[in-house]
Amino acid sequence: MALAVTMAVLAAIGLVVGANARATRALEQRAALVATAQAVEAGIPPRDQLREDRLDGVVAGHAWRMDTEPLDVGDIPDGVRWVPRRVRIRVAGPKGGLIEIETVRLVPTDTPPDTAPGDTESGPPDRSGAAAP
């Protein structure tokens, strides 16, 4: 009887340890995917060089792809200096995990701005609340 109880307890402990090991591996894989996606996002080209394009590569064994395309926001009025672009980053891990991040970047339009005399603004408006220098 004591042997049967001991076997049942050991089997239960084995199930818990196995589940914990699988969960730990899944968490480590997810963290590696997120870290790679963040590294790729940090490498997004500057606003004036961001074009409709597909870039891809491999970082630390993780294959990644970055697609850039216009963001459909409806009609854009004449004279707009900045337009949004959708940036999708997709990272696939070496063991099959997958993560996709989508972000939006404002890029300058190809048309010269209609500036008033003395207007020197060179980027999107600062919404941080900080005083201008």
Automatic annotation (TrEMBL):
Entry superkingdom: Bacteria
Span list, region Disordered: 106-133
Organism this protein belongs to: Xanthobacter agilis
Protein name as it appears in the record: General secretion pathway protein I
